[in-house]
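Hey, can you fold this?
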Amino acid sequence: MFERLKAIPKYMDYNGQKKAEKIFQSVIIVFAVIGFVWGYVVQHFSVTVLVLLAGFVLCCILVLPPWPYYRQHPLKWQKAVSDESTEGTPGGSKKQRRK
């Protein structure tokens, strides 16, 4: 059970974060305008709030999970560099005192 949960990717690359932010802002603005207009027409502020809440729930479904759409440009990490001259010393290098 836990192996399946660990296998789920939990990251989003930088381009994916930018896409998610644009989607979030666009959906919220569209739902806010629709909610405002509809609420004005029926003269109920609660309709405006409910439409905006529906947009927020939709945004959570679209943006929060790390969908494959947001992981199209993974980062290429550099290999770790090991330095033989600093191995074995606690501080990483030998310091000399000046007199």
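Oh, and this one too while you're at it.
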Amino acid sequence: FAAVATQSSGSSGINAEYGVLLMQERAKAISRADELIDSVQEKTDRVIQLENEKRDLQSRLTLADSEIDSLHDQRDSLTTEKTDLEVEVEKLRRENDSLQNAIDTFEAAFEYKEKEIEGLQRQIEEFNLEMDELVG
């Protein structure tokens, strides 16, 4: 009975040591699990932060695309206005050329009429001289 009692108390000691080791391992496992949970939570928080930054960047990109489209529309409008102005300038140039031709024609006709008037004035002077000679 003493041998069984010694064996039994020895077995209890081993069981107690094994129990302590199990408790220590369990505490380590719980601590490691807590660390893993904290790490996962940090990574989850970082993923959420990155998703928010991504949404913000996508919003900014959409706004920038909208601004680019607006600038393209303005450029197209200005190009159309420029084309319209170029057409108007060409029309005014043709009108100016036509008016200049009319002015040149008028000036030529005016010079011709001035010469004609000078010629007629000479004829009148000659006629008056002849009349004065005939009368006088």
